[in-house]
Automatic annotation (TrEMBL):
The lineage of its organism: Bacteria, Bacillati, Actinomycetota, Actinomycetes, Micrococcales. This is DUF559 domain-containing protein.
Length: 273
């Protein structure tokens, strides 16, 4: 909020100064203030006279981004400049916003953050972010027309790769690997006596995406082993792949999947390439 907005609400200059001194109000720059309990990335963007966007804003919203932004991503009008142009922490975005925000807003709309993030990330990471936004209902399917219309035409190919059923970013990335192999796969499959699994490939191979968050302790691993025994009794094989390998060693994951599906015991379904 600006000084004039505070004054319009009955704040005197002395009251504003006292609130800043007490930490009840943050002075962002010459004519802008905010509450001290706002997320730190928003405050950082505000101090720069900008708005939080791209992967920085998506991360704040709980949307998957493959890498933690090493610099805060901010949006500025083309005619503006950062309040502190020496800030090495800022990655600037200049595109005209599809959904302009009111004066004083410290972040762009979720749609604009996604538009910036698609252009800022590699394609597979962009798909994972869009899947996550759809799954978390940060983005609606009905908004995809507007989103892709704001992007260069080369990004249009990503639309047909989206699937909001993915419950995590690594699941989206693994789905893209499976798609590149050319195998048949079903996602989020419930198997009687086993429970729900991430993927069933060619009708016989269960592929699970394991993260430290949900599979890191022994009790969780024990539950996984019990499920694997139950699925083996039904004739399924199981491959567990860590989120780290999916994100940072995708070629090795692809080779492992291809090797399994081409093995003599795996010739139960078609495999291309």
């Amino acid at each position: 909020m600006t000084t004039s907005e505070l004054r319009a609400e009955g704040w005197s200059k002395r009251r504003i100064a006292r609130a800043v001194d007490r930490g009840e109000l943050l002075h962002l720059h010459r004519d802008a203030y905010c509450a001290p309990d706002l997320p730190l990335p928003c405050i950082e963007a505000g101090r720069l006279g900008a708005r939080l966007t791209c992967t920085s804003e998506l991360e704040r919203l709980g949307v998957f981004v493959m890498t933690h932004p090493d610099r805060v991503h901010v949006h500025l009008p083309r005619s503006a400049a950062l309040r502190n142009p020496q800030s090495a922490r800022a990655k600037r975005h200049w595109m005209i916003l599809n959904r302009p925000r009111p004066r004083g807003a410290l972040c762009v709309s979720p749609l604009d953050a996604l538009i910036h993030a698609v252009g800022c990330q590699e394609p597979r990471a962009a798909v994972a972010s869009l899947d996550s936004a759809l799954h978390r209902r940060v983005l609606r399917r009905s908004e995809l027309d507007e989103l892709f219309a704001a992007l260069p035409a080369r990004h249009g190919v990503l639309w047909r790769l989206l699937d909001e059923r993915a419950e995590s970013g690594p699941e989206s990335l693994l789905r893209l690997i499976l798609r590149s192999i050319g195998c048949r796969y079903d996602v989020q499959v419930t198997i009687a006596g086993v429970g729900r699994v991430d993927f069933v490939v060619n009708g016989w191979l269960i592929v699970e995406c394991d993260s430290r968050e949900f599979h890191g302790d022994w009790a969780a691993q024990r539950r996984d082993h019990v499920r694997d025994l139950a699925s083996a009794a039904l004739g399924f094989a199981t491959l567990r792949v860590t989120a780290e390998d999916i994100m940072w060693r995708p070629d090795e994951v692809r080779r492992a999947l291809t090797g399994l599906l081409r093995s003599p015991g795996g010739r139960r379904g078609p495999i291309a390439g």
